[in-house]
Design brief:
By secondary structure, this protein is mainly α. The chain has 4 helices and no strands.
């Protein structure tokens, strides 16, 4: 996986691929819920890309430091302190990302449960309408026979 940031075109392509793969899902879920799900997936993608960009930047810094032979004006202790800060930032960012990911997964799970309940309710309503229609047809037939 590349650590470059996605372009707008790549994001649209990923979104269109995801939407094209399950067209029936969009019809079943409904526009609003599909939009929320797509937004949650796009948010997760952005967070992952941001983390990959941070890692790429840190790797570039380490590579530049190695290329200079480590003979920068800073002392060894200062370099260690900078690395500790970078590691602390990365740890903090990762914890925030994991918390956001967990929250997004929980929201998606809740939304799926709600959608399933809505589907079941819709199925019951359709069944009820079919039964009522059938009763009306039978009643109409009886009235036409008299």
């Amino acid at each position: 996986m590349s650590t470059d940031t996605p372009t707008e075109m790549e994001s649209e392509q990923v979104n269109s691929d995801a939407m094209g793969a399950e067209p029936r899902l969009v019809e079943q879920i409904g526009g609003d819920a599909a939009l929320k799900l797509q937004h949650a997936m796009y948010t997760l993608t952005c967070i992952v890309w941001q983390q990959l960009t941070t890692i790429h930047s840190l790797e570039a810094q380490v590579c530049a430091w190695r290329m200079s032979g480590g003979s920068a004006a800073r002392t060894h202790d200062a370099q260690l302190e900078e690395l500790r800060h970078a590691q602390a930032r990365l740890t903090h960012d990762r914890a925030a990302w994991e918390a956001q990911r967990a929250a997004d997964h929980a929201a998606i799970a809740l939304e799926r449960r709600q959608l399933q309940a809505a589907r079941e309710e819709l199925a019951e309503q359709q069944k009820d309408v079919e039964q009522q229609r059938e009763r009306l047809y039978r009643r109409l037939e009886r009235l036409q026979q008299h």
